[in-house]
């Protein structure tokens, strides 16, 4: 039986309101539809029947795949984890960075300081371990996905790259285009409305993360102890002592001492688990 999770993502139209000092007063996102005239409801389905498609190799782990569909906009996005992806190895193609606000809107929806460790645990659990393509001074994980987008029968392909950047998640989106395309890989360009618009990218991001976090809650998933560091911000987060945590330190020595203690505690926990 095909099982789909309906996710109602409510977006505030005209979401930013600022004072003369530039302070953001309003940025609202909700996972529950609200009956108010200034809200517009978007709905998408995440198809759970195509998760973790096994490879033919007896050694390689299953490959995470899923499908996201928004019937109101006639858009379907096939998602595939690609931990060893390298843009330089695709002959005849180049990858253009696309500007968007999806990571900011994701941050505004999940203001909890525990979002980063919970998001990491969900990504690790459902899509596989982090790759190593990140700046270890500013973060501790990286997850790459290929998106094949079909919008009203117009096809396009993107790299969707999630990394920890200091105290929040950064999402990099690159569009695959022929090498003869006039756009340059070192210059950000706006998304193409008819292929994968700015709004599409934002809605996909909210839907994708909501699905992962909802599934971890439904499964009552408990991760093994872990700690993530961003030394640039003296920031530590993770899962220890049967709970998620997030701490920022005001001195480098305190950060290093806390990190050492946590790693020792994790090693002790792992030894206990393996007995």
Give a brief description.
The protein has five helices and 14 strands. By secondary structure, it is α+β, with helices and mostly antiparallel strands.
Low-confidence stretches: 1-42, 49-59
Tally of individual helices: 5
Overall shape: it is globular
Fraction of residues in helix:
25-40%
Strand content: 25-35%
**Number of beta strands:** 14
Q: How many structural domains? A: 2
Cα separation of the termini: 39 Å
Strand line-up across the major sheet: 4-1-5-6-7-9-10-11-8
Instruction: Report on the biggest sheet.
Output: 9 strands, antiparallel
Mean of pLDDT: 80
Order of helices and strands: EEEEEEEEHHEEEHHEEEH
Given the helix and strand composition, which structural class is it?
alpha+beta
Question: What is the alpha-carbon Rg in Å?
Answer: 20 Å
Q: Could you characterize what this model shows?
A:
The chain has 275 residues and is α+β, with helices and mostly antiparallel strands. It has two domains: 46-204, no CATH class; 226-274, no CATH class. The protein contains five helices and 14 strands. It has helices spanning 102-109, 115-127, 193-196, 198-219, 252-274; strands at residues 4-12, 17-18, 24-26, 29-30, 39-47, 65-70, 75-81, 93-98, 142-151, 154-165, 168-178, 226-230, 235-240, 243-248. Strands 4-1-5-6-7-9-10-11-8 form a nine-stranded antiparallel β-sheet. The protein has a three-stranded antiparallel β-sheet with strand order 12-13-14, with helices on both faces. The protein has a two-stranded antiparallel sheet with strand order 2-3. Helix 1 (102-109) runs parallel beside helix 4 and helix 2 packs across helix 4 (198-219). The radius of gyration is 20 Å and the shape is globular. The two termini are 39 Å apart. Mean pLDDT is 80; it is low at 1-42 and 49-59.
């Amino acid at each position: 039986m095909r099982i789909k999770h309906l996710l109602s993502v409510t977006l505030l139209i005209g979401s930013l309101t600022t004072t003369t000092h530039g302070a953001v007063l309003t940025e609202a996102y909700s996972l529950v539809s609200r009956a108010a005239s200034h809200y517009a409801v978007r709905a998408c389905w995440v198809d759970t029947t195509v998760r973790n498609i096994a490879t033919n190799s007896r050694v390689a782990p299953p490959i995470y795949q899923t499908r996201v569909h928004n019937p109101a906009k006639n858009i379907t996005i096939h998602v595939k984890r690609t931990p060893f992806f390298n843009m330089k190895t695709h002959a005849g193609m180049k990858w253009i960075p696309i500007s968007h606000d999806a990571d900011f809107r994701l941050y505004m929806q999940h203001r909890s300081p525990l979002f980063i460790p919970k998001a990491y645990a969900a990504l690790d659990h459902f899509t596989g371990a982090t790759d190593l393509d990140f700046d270890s001074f500013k973060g501790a994980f990286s997850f790459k996905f290929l998106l094949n987008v079909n919008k009203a029968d117009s096809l396009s392909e993107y790299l969707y790259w999630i990394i920890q950047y200091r105290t929040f998640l950064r999402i990099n989106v690159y569009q695959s285009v022929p090498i003869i395309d006039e756009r340059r890989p070192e210059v950000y360009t706006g998304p193409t409305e008819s292929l994968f618009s700015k709004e599409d990218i934002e809605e996909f991001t909210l839907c994708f993360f909501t699905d992962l976090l909802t599934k971890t809650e439904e499964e009552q998933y408990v991760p093994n102890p872990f700690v993530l560091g961003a030394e640039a911000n003296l920031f530590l987060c993770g899962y220890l002592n049967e709970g998620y945590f997030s701490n920022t330190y005001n001195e480098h020595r305190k950060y290093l001492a806390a990190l050492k203690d946590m790693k020792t505690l994790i090693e002790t926990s792992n030894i206990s688990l393996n007995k």
